[in-house]
Amino acid sequence: MMKVHFIGAGQMVEAIVRAAVNNGKLRGGDISIEDIDPARVSLLTGKYGVAASKSLAGADLVVIAVRPQDNLGAVAKSIVDRASDDVIVVSIVAGVTLAHLDTLLGAGRPVARVIPNTLTDTGYGFSGVVLNERVRPDDIQDFLESFGKVLYLEERMLDIFTGFAIAGPNYIYYFIESLTDAGVLAGLPRAQATAVVMENLVGAVEMLKRSQLHPRQLLDINNSPAGVGMHGLYELNNSDFAAGLQRSVLAAVKRTTQLANE
Ligand SMILES: NC(=O)c1ccc[n+]([C@@H]2O[C@H](COP(=O)([O-])OP(=O)(O)OC[C@H]3O[C@@H](n4cnc5c(N)ncnc54)[C@H](OP(=O)(O)O)[C@@H]3O)[C@@H](O)[C@H]2O)c1
């Protein structure tokens, strides 16, 4: 197993460590952390058996996990001072480009930019990954797969990926809430409406996978002439549903780019 050191031990690192340790892909003993907040260090060492350390000796990967507004220059300098040139630096800091990381770390280091998904505990969810020319996918695949699935991207796609995929569970949670409310509005008890929506959601995804049909084809199969479903869909077509959802994604993508430039 590879040894991973995290600089910054906030919410995202906890989500990664919790998933990786619980699914057995990393052992607590293979992970070390540091954070300027001692409370975060003692919380994570206590909960997941990771080590508190400021040494990078033996680390295969060093993950920069501070916020974009934190002192990234100081973090980069501390890596340059402590890690040999061949240690892979993984940055999960939103909006900080490979070119900027090269400036901070000095060109010539292997660097990966990762936008981690937030469904880490489930094994679902893609993390978006961009590698510089000194990192091969095999070098970090095991680490990345310890907290979800991996999508390699061109760097220019990363903001789109963030607004669409990383914000993606929000759209699903909101859809689930809205559809459940519709069942309650129509008269079903909330617990039953929730159970039906969850089952339909998972089942619909499974139907798409098994049938290999386009959603439109399954809609066609499900909706007989002048039937119940077709009447429901007619009303949905009259709403702003599709365009509203699409505008929402475009707004999230735009905001990602704005934040990167601030
Ligand atoms: N949360 C998400 O959904 C998500 C998704 C994708 C990517 N990201 C990226 O992941 C990164 C971390 O996000 P987060 O939500 O985990 O933030 P967070 O909870 O605020 O964690 C950042 C941690 O880093 C610590 N820190 C700051 N400067 C440091 C330094 N120089 N050395 C060591 N530790 C330092 C902070 O301590 P203090 O609080 O005491 O300053 C804090 O505990 C961000 O760059 C974000 O863009 C987050």
From TrEMBL:
Its EC number is 1.5.1.2. Pathway: Amino-acid biosynthesis; L-proline biosynthesis; L-proline from L-glutamate 5-semialdehyde: step 1/1. One of its GO terms (cellular component) is cytoplasm. GO terms for biological process: L-proline biosynthetic process. NADP(+) binds at residues 7-12, 65-68. The keyword NADP applies. This is Pyrroline-5-carboxylate reductase. It comes from Acerihabitans arboris. The lineage of its organism: Bacteria, Pseudomonadati, Pseudomonadota, Gammaproteobacteria, Enterobacterales.
